[in-house]
Amino acid sequence: MKRLLWILCLSAWSLQAENPRIIDLGHEGHTFEIVEENLLEVIQTKLKKLEQEGSLKDLQQKIQARAKEKILAPQSVSGITKASETKERIYDPRYTVKSTLKDQKGHVFAKAGDIINPLDHVSFGDPLLFIDGKDTDQLSYAKQQLQKGPVKIVLVSGRPLDLSKELHQAIYFDQGGFLSKKLRITKVPALVYQENKLLKIKEVRV
C-alpha cells in the first residue's frame, strides 16, 4: 500500500513537471525597483576614495611588489618531495593516435590507431635536471652535473632569475607542474635523458 502511494505521488509530481502552470499570487506590502550599480562606476568611486585618502599609491606599490615576487619566485610545484633513495625508471613517450589527423591540404599524416614515438623524429636534446632551488644539497648536485656536461636545470621551487645570474646560464621553471606531471616526477633531484628511443628518469638521493 505504501509502495502504491509512493508511485502515485511520483506520478502526480511528474505530471505537474510536464504541465507547469504559472499562478499569480499577488503581492503584499511595499515593492521596490531593483537598482543595480554599474561595476565600473563602483570601482572608479573606490579608487577616487583611495586617492583622496592618500592610500592609492601604497596599493599600487603593493600590487607591483606582489607581481614582481611572482616572477622572481613562482609558486612551487605541489606534490614533489626530496628523493630518499637513488633509483631509475623508464618513461615510454609513445602514444596512440585517437583519430585520423590531416594537414591543411587534407593529406593524412597519422591514422587512428597509429602508435607514434616523437623520438623517432626528433632528439630529446640535453638532459633535464629537476631540482628544488631552495635546497642547498640539490643546488650543489646541479652544479656538479653542469661540470660534467650540458644540462638544462628545471626548478620546481625557488628563484630562477637569481639562480640564472649565479650560474651564468638559463634556468627554467616548471610552471604549474606541466612537465613533472607529464613525466610523473614526484621526487627530486630527477635527471631525465634519452636512451635509444625511450627516456630514462633517475631520482638521486643527495
Describe this structure in words.
The protein has 6 helices and 12 strands. The chain is α/β, with parallel strands linked by helices and 206 residues long. The protein has a domain of 95 residues. The strands form 4 sheets. A 6-stranded mixed beta sheet has the order 2-12-11-7-8-9, covered by helices on one side. The chain has a two-stranded parallel sheet with strand order 1-10. The protein has a two-stranded antiparallel sheet with strand order 3-6. A hairpin with a 5-residue loop joins strand 4 and strand 5. The chain is flat and about 65 Å long. The N and C termini lie far apart (73 Å). The N terminus is likely disordered.
Look at the helices and sheets and give the structural class: alpha/beta
Rg calc: 30 Å
Cα end-to-end separation: 73 Å
**Biggest sheet: strands side by side, in what order?**
2-12-11-7-8-9
Count of alpha and pi helical runs? 6
Total number of β-strand segments?
12
